[in-house]
Design goal:
The chain is mainly β. The protein has 3 helices and 19 strands.
Length: 288
């Protein structure tokens, strides 16, 4: 737990909304007991414009975070900084390119509450975000095909350009969202442009299944009860991790056939021979 003077200085115990924060928590199984829980925090780049107007050439964003269990006990905490340049070139992107901070924790199954605080050291502005989340025990899943959380994204960035990412909790080469030297940035707000592709990533866990037969995955976009678009089924057979039995599933979906509006995005995964299936669904928004 953060020392009491630090908690009072940064207001960790009280909600503050001077800086707008959005956050997404995911989970991926590491072994029979532990899960890697990456956390993505997004701040609109426009929030930094105030620091630039004050003449600062750069600003530091302090991040303090803690994860508490269902009983209020602090399981893990983190404290990091992002050093952000406010040059003319960088400033031109502030209105459209958000600042994204990422960290991660290794946790056991259970119910938790995470709280993240961000403080701009130049302006003194503070924002906090708190949310409950659950890490399920996928080892006890017997009816459905066990899967990780599902990450939706519209941005893959080479690791050499992932300037606003702080990596904790797992080495970069083991991070589930890093593939072929590129980092997948979760779309925390789940707003997608129809002019860009949507990337979908998840893991399925094939314990006891015939690993020689492919999983099948597809994505459906629904508006109410109407099916607007459905991707071709993708057969997935490669990449199983020997330790966790995780099979990575990656889909890229052009959105140009969708008109702007709100949809339910459903991801379906079928095990060989149709013995088990998994469904995941979340609302998204498509913009021009």
């Amino acid at each position: 737990t953060e020392p009491e003077p630090v908690r009072k200085l940064y207001g960790l115990d009280n909600p503050v909304t001077e800086i707008t924060i959005a956050m997404e928590v995911n989970y991926f199984q590491l072994n029979s007991a532990e899960y890697f829980v990456p956390v993505a925090v997004k701040i609109p780049g426009s929030e930094l414009e105030l620091a630039r107007r004050r003449g600062a050439a750069r600003t530091l964003i302090d991040f303090i975070g803690e994860v508490k269990d269902n009983y209020g006990y602090t399981m893990q905490n983190v404290r990091d900084k992002l050093d952000i340049k406010l040059s003319e070139e960088a400033a031109s992107q502030l209105g459209t390119r958000p600042i994204q901070y990422e960290t991660g924790f290794t946790l056991l199954p259970g119910k938790y509450v995470i709280k993240i605080l961000a403080r701009d050291s130049t302006t003194g502005r503070i924002g906090t975000y708190q949310a409950p989340f659950t890490v399920p025990n996928l080892m006890k899943e017997e009816v459905r095909l066990p899967i990780s959380s599902v990450v939706l994204s519209s941005q893959r960035v080479p690791m050499t350009e992932a300037l606003h990412t702080v990596q904790n909790g797992a080495a970069q080469f083991t991070h589930p969202l890093v593939f072929d030297g590129e980092k997948l940035f979760p779309s925390v707000t789940r707003v997608f442009s129809r002019s860009r592709e949507m990337y979908v990533y998840l893991q399925a866990y094939e314990r006891g299944a015939d690993a020689t037969k492919p999983l099948v995955a597809f994505v459906t976009f629904l508006r109410g009860n109407d099916k607007v678009l459905e991707t071709q089924p993708l057969a997935v057979i490669d990449g199983m991790d020997a330790r966790s039995k995780a099979v990575p599933i990656r889909l890229s979906i052009p959105l140009n056939e969708l008109s702007p509006g709100r949809y339910d995005c459903q991801v379906s995964v079928l095990e060989p021979n149709g013995r088990k299936v998994a469904f995941w669904q979340a609302p998204i928004a498509v913009v021009p």
